[in-house]
Amino acid sequence: MSGRSAHAKAILGQELFSRLSQTKVLLVGAGGIGCELLKNIVLTGFGDITLLDLDTIDLSNLNRQFLFRKKDIKQSKALVAAKTASAFNPNVKITPIHANIKEPQFDVAWFKSFDLVLNALDNLDARRHVNKMCVAADVPLVESGTAGYLGQVQPIIKDRAECFDCVPKPTTKTFPVCTIRSTPSQPIHCIVWAKSYLIPQLFGEEEDGGELDEAEKQGENAKEIAALRKEAQAFKAVRAALRSSPTGDASSSGPSAAKMVFGKVFNADILNLLSMADMWRSRAPPTPLDFDKIRDGTFSLNRPQQNGVHANGSATANGKAGEASGSGGSAITEKLLNGSSSSSTSASGAGLKDQRALSLQDNLELFISSTERLAGRLRAGEETILFDKDDDDTLDFVTAAANLRSAAYGIPGKSRWEVKEMAGNIIPAIATTNAIIAGLIVLQALHLLRRSYHALRNVHVQFKPSMPLSAIAMCPPSSFCGVCRDTYTEVRCDPARVTLVEVVDGVLGVGAGDDDGERREVSVYEDKRVLSDPDWDDNNDRTLESLNVTRGKFLSIVDEEGEYATIQVAIGVLPPNHPVDAPALILPSPLPKPPKKVKPRAPTPSTPVSSKKRPAPDDIEEIDAPAAKRSKTVADTAAVPFTPSKKRRLEEDGLIMLDNAEEKIEEDPDVIEID
Ligand SMILES: Nc1ncnc2c1ncn2[C@@H]1O[C@H](COP(=O)(O)OP(=O)(O)OP(=O)(O)O)[C@@H](O)[C@H]1O
Ligand SMILES: [Zn+2]
């Protein structure tokens, strides 16, 4: 037994080592980093570990999440990891929880029961949530992440160091919509088009014609609206064919649904674009594709830029794509563009079917078969189908449609494997990076427990052989952070019995005698929903429950003058022994005293924007988070713009609406411009 801990004791010292066995640590995530980290902290001597994960074990996890075996597939990650790792040290208590960390029972009081939180998550939303809960509960957090060969560990300790949200995070890759719509120059543009535009158009929800009527009423450009109507009409016919034609015999003489789709998007739409001569003065025009000629092998793409350079001289991604995938650029490009048969490309090995380069003919056949498969699913009762990288039918469709579009625009094609990576935004997980990061997390956790704050470091694992690790001293919190610069407090209450105004006035101390009875002008939010403002008090007498403000949520009390910091009121539950006849509300004592605010220069990530005067809505109003500026109109160079709901969908996929390619995306930390 002593042999087991001898090294840890020698390294950590008796005092810290003893403390570890009592330290209550929460580990969120039992995936790639989580499994490594759980093993590390068990072996280091942590004695009281709560392990939480919402997921079950998948076959694809087994290559790196070594606490799991094949027999564990479909079991809870938290439960299996806890069981496996418990065997590493008989003195450890691991409490597994199979749940989402965002569930209401994991409220601020629950977070306060831990001495330390370790994040091993894979998404921004959950990371942000844990960051805020740790700031609210004043519990130190070690945040981490890996992406391929890159990794980062960030210790977070309230008021001493930046929190996770002090530095806004780039969330999505974005492309100007006109690039996607009519002037693609890279394979990714065609992949995004197939995945985010074509699939929803054909297999997604039907466009609501009402949106166009509404836009017309709002006085939007009549020409644009007419074009949109025409476009909607054209897709309507294709959608109907997909849903009604008999199960496809694509080779039959009548035009199959697949042929109709093909004719619209790879021929008619391109012909339409070509008719706008102005568009093609400075860039190579696309070539309309011919279904029958590709099928019978007589189609040829007479493009001037098969060497990967557009007619205007600007390089396309051809060379780069070839190098990056190791597939030898121009030879493949030739093959892809000229429609040579797939049989000649099998040199890369039959076992690597997904990695094989596809000829134009291959792509057409894949397009037909995947369209028929998807249409068959619609006819079998599936209402809508959207892209999912693990859904073979949609992946085949996106691969084929993207490659056909690429061919029309003189862009090299991609293998199914590459399309899966690109469309699914997949960065391969690397076990070694996870292992390095998990080790670094423990080192930072130990600094936190020793209170050696000067030793804390932001550590990056980077792709630089000369300096694989970089350790940066901690930065103080950003004065403008919308999370850690707020003042946190907790109200324990029964949301079914307390009203909004009771909580807000209670927290502000209205009537408590210390503010001359003068109530500060405030707006109240739950997340981004406005619940009240100085001119709108309709919700004041509603219960928190009726406003859906319940355990685990926060009420944000924002000073209307912007003079004081925002108060974040965490909603907790009444203690079990709370007398039934007592008020259903326990206010914090002392009441929070928010400091004077440093005036922000720009909106911070999560501070709700101050409300404008507005009519009282029937129900709660959603306001948009401050996000990348989007222009109202869409590419006038493109043949057809996007309806509002299409725009929404594209925006969710990380696309930004720009008037034209020349317009710059307004500087926004949440946006990475790719094009
Ligand atoms: N909100 C959440 N609550 C609890 N656990 C979460 C939450 N969000 C993510 N997780 C867990 O965090 C872990 C992250 O691990 P990892 O990055 O290895 O992802 P994975 O899903 O296991 O693998 P991959 O995404 O590569 O298939 C996952 O096990 C996931 O279930
Ligand atoms: Zn912060």
The helix tally amounts to 20
Largest sheet, strands/sense/barrel? 8 strands, mixed
- Shape label: globular
In percent, how much strand structure appears in the residues?
5-15%
Number of individual domains: 3
Task: Give the fraction of residues assigned to helices.
Answer: 25-40%
Task: Please count the beta strands (DSSP E, at least 2 residues each).
Answer: 17
Alpha-beta classification:
alpha/beta
- Strands ordered across the widest β-sheet: 3-2-1-4-5-6-8-9
> Mean pLDDT, rounded to whole units?
81
Annotated CATH homologous superfamily of the largest domain: NAD(P)-binding Rossmann-like Domain
Q: Kindly provide the radius of gyration, computed on alpha-carbon positions and rounded to a whole number of angstroms.
A: 29 Å
Can you put this structure into words, describing what you see?
- With 675 residues, the protein is an alpha/beta fold.
- It folds into three domains: 2-169 and 429-473, Rossmann fold (3-Layer(aba) Sandwich), CATH 3.40.50.720; 186-203 and 258-423, Ubiquitin activating enzymes (Uba3). Chain: B, domain 2 (Arc Repressor Mutant, subunit A), CATH 1.10.10; 486-597, Ubiquitin-like 2 activating enzyme e1b. Chain:  B, domain 3 (Structural Genomics Hypothetical 15.5 Kd Protein In mrcA-pckA Intergenic Region, Chain A).
- It is 36% helix and 12% strand.
- The protein is built from 20 helices and 17 strands.
- The chain has an eight-stranded mixed sheet, sandwiched between helices.
- α3 (32-44) runs parallel beside α4 and α10 (222-244) runs antiparallel to α11.
- Mean pLDDT is 81; it is low at 250-254, 304-350, 604-650 and 654-675.
- Bound molecules: adenosine-5'-triphosphate and zinc ion (ZN).
